[in-house]
Structure prediction request, 687 residues.
Amino acid sequence: MKAPDYPSNEASRLAALQSTLLLDTPPEERFDRVTRLAAQLFDVPICLVSLVDSDRQWFKSCYGLDASETGRDISFCGHAILGPNVFVVEDTLTDERFADNPLVTGGPNIRFYAGAPLADLEGYRLGTLCLIDSTPRTFSEKQQQALRDFADIVEREFRYQELNSYYADRTRALNILNDIALDTSGNLDNRIERALAIACQYLNIDTAIVSQIEGEAYTILWHHERQTPSLENGLTLPLAQTYCAILMNQPDVLAIDHMATSPYRDLPCYQLFGLESYLAAPIWVNGEAVGTLNFSSTEPRLPGFSETEKTFVSLLARWVADLIQQQDQAETLDKLVSNAPGMLYQYRLWPDGHSSFPYTSEGIRRIFGLTANDVVDDATPAFKRIHQEDMQRVFESIQSSAETLEPWETRYRIMTPAGHWRWIEGKANPEKLPEGSILWHGYIVDIDERQKNEEMKNQFVSTVSHELRTPLTSIAGSLGLILGGVTGDITEKTRQMLNITRRNADQLRALIDDLLDIEKLASGNMLIVMEQHPIADVVSTAVEHIQSYANQKHVQLRLKESSTGLEANIDPQRFQQAIANLLSNAVKFSPPHEDVTIEIRQTGDQAMVEVSDKGTGVPESFRERIFEKFAQADGSSARAKEGTGLGLAITKQLMNAMGGDVGYESEEGAGAMFWLSIPIQGPADNE
Prediction:
């Protein structure tokens, strides 16, 4: 008797057999159907699906035989898997390899054997579909082809088995990756080291490393070892001495199943570390390979790393890359935030009314004397620092921003850790979240010095303006008397000089009046007396007062009342002042002999007063500053016009104080239309 030889790829073949998950499994009809039909077709008593294991042949399907396995050393199938063709022994007693085989001399008394090898997708011959008879017989080529056809059916079932295993393993791999991604507990080190441990268990491999590669230096950032630890984080090696030097020369996954039989066996890294199997993927951040995720073992990988395992490592490397990128971005943001003035924050107002600061920068220590943890769940500690007189205004501004989703901007005082009151300013943009919360993103800065400087400046302007108003009034009155002839006749040249002086005095007095008005508005001391009043009456009065100025400029004022009888709750004097400012600007910027149109109309529940001119329009570069104090367009034509730059700023604050608004529409070079709006109070007749 001759025992069967072993195939040259025996180790890989056995690994492939194990991976089918067929050994020692219960009978299945899909295989029994084939052996039953084949036995009937070929008229033999026994037909088997035999799998050749390391020291046995095990029968997945067994027709006509009670045994489930026999030793490999006496097996016929062990001979059959040595070649690709059907293996036939027509009479065992005439074949010296089998004449004294126990399966021939004893039960089942084999005298005839024909076995077709069964191979997997990789070509590994795992076993046979074999026919057995207790009497000798011939087996034609046609019969061998028929047996091969039956064997192909069994191989197709192997393919299904492999596909099932493939998809099952793929599902398992994706589930593991999903679990890793969803595990957000702990810091970055904890998360990556847990992931490496899970990956080692899934891959059944000894060592996992996340490395950083800078130039020719290879540094271990994180690692996991299933055996006795021999590595440490922070260890740096020359890149050329590592397997990753091979990986960096290609853009994707590198899999080495058996280093000793690979093209890389002569490299220094193999001589130095002796690792036989290696699976790795580069870690890409912002288009640059910054390191590797690699798994290795001192044992060969048989039958080899699967496509699922390669995909697993590639996807895990992307996850690691995302974490590294997030950490880099967070560190960069922290550096920027730490150098930003004041504090950056997120403030969240919940539907039940409680609030918190989900995020605050370190600036909260400088502003409130608190830490981020003090307010992460409850904003109360920060609100307790606000001055009692400012508290209601702050709450109202937050509520208004929450309801309108308009940006929040407020100045208020807080108590510092040193026990002093300081002015701060906050600005933030709100965002409504799906569950009803409002989340603001913004910043708070210390403006105490600026606030004090503004108060000093306003006080200075107010004092100087009051001190100048009395002598200017006296000067203007005296000039009027002189020009009226009270002091006697004056020469024409003297009259011209006095007229120039009076105009300059009038302009200076107008400037002082504007300065006083803007100071009163800023300090809240402007007296606003609201009453129900017809809009048209106020507009007509303003037009009458500006008429002489329009005549000097040769500009025609045209009043149009599209909606009559409109009334609103206004301060007539201040509303007239706002209209006069718009009329003055329109006349000032209108070319001679052109019209300035004033229209009164109703839009919804608003009364609108529109002042249109045919001047040069508002320059694009000036539009963002047009309602700021002392703002004037930089164009030479604009600068040639007299004015303080306070008119529109005063108009805006007057309208806001009365519950109205001001705005404009303009096309540069084609005139402008400025409008005032005020809520209508009471009935109106529309024409």
